[in-house]
Prior knowledge:
Blueprint: H1 8-11, E1 15-20, E2 25-28, H2 30-35, H3 55-67, E3 71-77, E4 80-91, E5 94-105
Antiparallel strand pairs: 1-2, 1-5, 3-4, 4-5
Amino acid sequence: xxxxxxxxxxxxxxxxxxxxxxxxxxxxxxxxxxxxxxxxxxxxxxxxxxxxxxxxxxxxxxxxxxxxxxxxxxxxxxxxxxxxxxxxxxxxxxxxxxxxxxxxxxxxxxxxxxx
Length: 115
């Protein structure tokens, strides 16, 4: 899959992880591999997401793919806040799997309303 990704994805400062419909991790960029270094880093490519998550998280991942849902939230870990965006990706009009983007954000994230 990574040969179809744009060159900027590897060095993107946020973590990008892409998995197929069966949960197999197809791609991790450098930031994702670093973020999951304690769990194996880049060696996680080819393994299944289910092994890295609890039952509740696995259920959420399944619903994202089955129902085409987008899941977005923020977390704080190690004193750093991150925005997490999980969404299905599509191939030929059908859900092909899930992509997760995780990016560091400021403590007070500005919100702008535009019409």
